[in-house]
Amino acid sequence: MDYGVKVHVWGELACFTRPEMKAERVSYDVITPSAARGILDAIYWRKSIRWIIDKIYVLNPIRFCNIRRNEVSSPIYKKNITSTMNNISRPLSLFIESDRTQRNSMVLRDVSYVIDAHFEAVENDGKNKGKHFGIFNRRIENGQCFNQPYLGCREFSAFFEPISNKMPVAINETRDLGWMLYDMCFDIKKKKDKCNILPMFFRAKIENGCISVPHPNSDEVKR
User: Fold this and answer.
1) CB 201, CB 182: distance < 8 Å
2) Element holding 50 (H helix, E strand)
3) By residue range, what is the domain housing residue 203?
4) 60 and 171 in contact (C-beta within 8 Å)?
5) Does a structural domain hold residue 88?
6) C-alpha gyration radius of the chain
7) Where residue 190 falls among pLDDT bands split at 50, 70, 90?
8) Which terminal CB of the chain, N or C, has fewer other CB atoms within 10 Å?
């Protein structure tokens, strides 16, 4: 038995960045399954379960706006961190005033979704599904979370609440959204002790305000 949940999430701004846009951030039209999973993980995460997104309901009309944000142009690379750890006398620093740059972002405004999902047990934890389901319901009713959920970018906070009574009405819109990022696949090679990060994509379609999300193991998800 799979335990399903429905969560209403909303926020003032959101940005689910398209990976093909590198310099300037451009958001997808709707929330991605990976961002929806991240919201559920922020509310309740356990290594013995994994969240599977089934459907996403779009409640508000899709609207974009342009904003300008301050960012840094020089990231801190892993090799620099390793060098500092091996040689403490070599400082590791990043001065925002000298590396600050402004970039345009095309983001979503006034977003509202219903995330329909369930969780599957991993690590032979099938007997405790009822316990996890009960804990999640108590946490979401009390507004508890391990960290503040966000809508694509951490500065765009997400508010959440359970769907207790009547299901909200989705927008009356049907169209093809094209290829969308599904999630990231972490392929761990035990022999070489390396991890390959592979993106997964699927063909997203919105039908009467609802997006049906395939299972990550289905043939509809391309790696």
Assistant:
1) yes
2) strand 49-58
3) 3-72+102-212
4) yes
5) no
6) 20
7) low
8) N
What angle (nearest 5°) sits at the alpha carbon of residue 12, between those of residues 6 and 13?
100
Contacts of 129 (CB under 8 A, 6+ apart): 1, 3, 49, 119, 121
What is the mean predicted confidence (pLDDT) over 207-212?
96
Contact between 76 and 91 (Cβ < 8 Å): no
The DSSP annotation for 92-130 comes to ----HHHHEEEEEEEEEEEEEEEEEEEEEE-SS-GGGHH
Encoding tokens for residue 155?
């500065």
Cα–Cα nearest to 203, from 176, 170, 185: 176
Structure tokens at 54: 């089934």
Residue 22: give its domain's CATH number.
Answer: 3.30.70.2660
Confidence of residue 4 (pLDDT cuts 50, 70, 90): confident
Question: For residue 217, is it within any domain?
Answer: no
Residue 141 lies in a domain: yes
Contact 131, 2 (CB under 8 A): no
Average pLDDT for the chain: 88
Q: How confident is the model over 42-46, as a mean pLDDT?
A: 94
Q: What is the mean pLDDT of residues 114-118?
A: 96
Q: Give domain status of residue 83, yes or no.
A: no
Q: Residue 113: which of 40, 19, 17 has the closest Cα?
A: 40
The percentage of the chain sitting over the pLDDT mark of 90, rounded to a whole number, equals: 59
For residue 214, give both structure tokens.
């395939």
Tracing tokens 């609207």 back to the chain, one arrives at 63
Q: What is the count of structural domains for the chain? A: 1
